[in-house]
Each structure stands twice: as C-alpha cells, then as structure tokens.
Amino acid sequence: MKRQLYLAAGLISVALGSIGVVLPLLPTVPFMILAAFCFANSSPRLESWLVEHHVFGGHIRNWRDRRAITRRGKWAATVAFVVSCVIALLFVKLPWNLIPIAAALISGSWIWTRNEPYPAKLPVRPPSQKE
Length: 131
Fold this sequence. Notes:
This protein is mainly alpha-helical. It has helices spanning 2-22, 29-40, 44-51, 57-66, 71-91, 98-108.
C-alpha cells in the first residue's frame, strides 16, 4: 500500500511539473525532484528514467548530492517569483492581501541560501611534448 501511494504521488508530481513547463507560475523542477523521491520509494525504473532525464536529471542529481541549485536556476526562479508577485499586486485588494505576498517573498528568498553545484571539471590535457 505504501509503495502505491509513493507511486501515485510521483505520477502526480510529474503531471504537475509537466504543467509547470507551460504555466510560468507553477514550478517544474521542484515537482520533478519530489517525483524522483517518490519513485525512489516505489519504482526504480521510473526513478532511473527521471534521474537520467536529459533536462531534469542534472537538477535532481545536484539536489540529491549537495542540496544545490544552479545560479541560473536561482535567477530564473527569482524572476518568475517577482513577476508573479507584481501580477498579484495588480489584481489584489490592498492592504490586507499584501500579507500573503510579503510572506511569499520572504519565504521564497530561501533559494539563495542553497548551495551551488560544483563547477564542471575541465578535461585534463596531457602535457605537451616538445619534439
């Protein structure tokens, strides 16, 4: 039963992450990371597929290895977050609806406290030989 719940949660996370690809207000990578966690507890085949995925795999491995988010990912999330807050400010009644927006801005800033992945290692060049 526990395995089926993890599988269902993983499939729902993949569905939400897939929707997030086209909906800018819905985050994609966090749902894929959650899906990988769920699949690790339910389906090794689906976990492997997700961890090796050409788009999401690197983000999942960075999170698993170091709880790391790339600087580009941090900036993308921050820009999306700010745009969402500006849109919310345009449509909410003030002043009481500012409280959830302020809370979201404050809690969303945690992303900048996360590690960044190790830089990719450059290929080692053999020493040049003089003839």
